[in-house]
Design brief:
The protein is α/β, with parallel strands linked by helices. The chain has a single domain, classed as Class I glutamine amidotransferase (GATase) domain (Rossmann fold, 3-Layer(aba) Sandwich), CATH 3.40.50.880. It is built from 6 helices and 11 strands. The strands form 3 sheets. The protein has a 6-stranded mixed sheet, sandwiched between helices. A 3-stranded mixed sheet has the order 2-4-5, with helices on one face. It has a two-stranded parallel ribbon with strand order 8-9. Strand 4 and strand 5 form a beta hairpin. It is globular and about 40 Å long. The two termini are 16 Å apart.
């Protein structure tokens, strides 16, 4: 299986696990991942945030690592990529305000290429207008974003994932095994045990 080129949209305070784990996993199985951030170049870094579930009414947030970008946002041509990944954290809240980000997202849906989004990542999809008539999972607080744009929120356990055609989503990082397995399946990745 040839390596797939995956575009990962990140920004400052992207959720640490939701960027680090998929990035490293996809590289481990032989794919190429270009992590980009509006206004930043390859080699620059974004700060991450760790969201944890400690019994409060919502997640707690702690400083995470610095994550190095692997490509320059202004150089991105979405047509050169086989798939898109949108991690969560606070970053999608402002990434969805960038017209080029929304244009990129629309490309992957118009061409039916695989898309993976987790936690707050579906906020970017909702803002791009690509969830109408689609079912996806997201962090519960993102549910209104999904339904307001005409999508249906899939109720899955915190460690579960949901697939709808070319779209694989999950509520938060505890779902990494299920979510990444479903995304790898969409990518056509074969893993021998």
């Amino acid at each position: 299986m040839p390596a797939k080129r995956i575009l990962m949209l990140v920004g400052d305070f992207v959720e640490d696990y939701e960027v680090m784990v998929p990035f490293q996993t996809l590289l481990t199985v032989g794919h190429v991942v270009d992590a980009v951030c509006p206004g930043k170049k390859a080699g620059e870094k974004v700060r991450t945030a760790v969201h944890d579930f400690e019994g409060d009414q919502t997640y707690s947030e702690k400083p995470g690592h610095n994550f190095a970008l692997t490509a320059t946002f202004d150089d991105v041509d979405a047509g050169r990529y086989d798939a898109l990944l949108s991690p969560g954290g606070p970053a999608p809240e402002y990434l969805r305000l960038n017209p080029k980000v929304l244009e990129m997202v629309r490309h992957f849906f118009a061409t039916n290429k695989p898309v993976a989004a987790i936690c707050h990542g579906p906020q970017v999809l909702a803002a791009a207008g690509v969830l109408k008539g689609r079912t996806c999972s997201a962090y519960p607080a993102v549910g209104p974003d999904v339904t307001t744009c005409g999508g249906t929120l899939a109720e899955v356990p915190i460690d579960g994932a949901h697939a709808d055609g070319n779209l694989v989503t999950a509520p938060a990082w505890p779902a990494h095994p299920a979510w990444l397995r479903a995304f790898l399946k969409l990518l056509g990745t074969k893993i021998e045990a």
